[in-house]
Specification:
Layout lengths: L4 H11 L6 H13 L2 H17 L1 E2 L6 E2 L5 H4 L4 E8 L2 H10 L4 E5 L17 H9 L5 E4 L5 H14 L5 E4 L15 H9 L2 E2 L1
Parallel strand pairs: 3-4, 3-5, 5-6
Antiparallel strand pairs: 1-2, 6-7
Amino acid sequence: MRTSPPIDRLIESLKQLPGIGEKSATRLAFFLLGAADSQVQALSEAIGRLKRDIVLCERCFDLTDHSPCEICRDPKRDTGLLCVVEEPADLAAVEKSARFRGQYHVLGGAFSPIDGIGPDELRVQELLARVRDGAIEEVLLATNPNTEGDATAHYVADLLRESGVKLSRIAYGMPLGGDLEYADHVTVGLSVENRRSL
């Protein structure tokens, strides 16, 4: 289909989003063309403010609009229980399960030698410093149940064994090779509740 350059540019930009192919991008572009100006303006402003208003929490490294984040400031959270996840989307998946009441540490990814990601590219040292502070009693390794996530969990567990903290790993109620971000909240919740010791 032949379209004008502004529409083509929008379609190309939308195709860069995860899970959006040519057809979806085209459908979204034409939806936006037919939407009310106020709706398009609100979307544009929300996208524009995203990079300006979001920062990393200084303690857990989650995405937030103020640091420390709401979870780190919550006095009702169990400060002795720390859940280690790969990405902020994984933290959101665990939170959505409403079964975990501890605190978090976002590593910023998982080992991926093919992509050049090793321990130095992740927030492993920051995790070790939090555990050395002495308030952490248990570390739940909630990296994704795939090759990279398992390698990351084993590496972190090996580093933490001498600290004396209890180590646990999310149960494999999660589909093998899946991502926490895309699992339903019930499955994520059961995986957290049925974690196993390492």
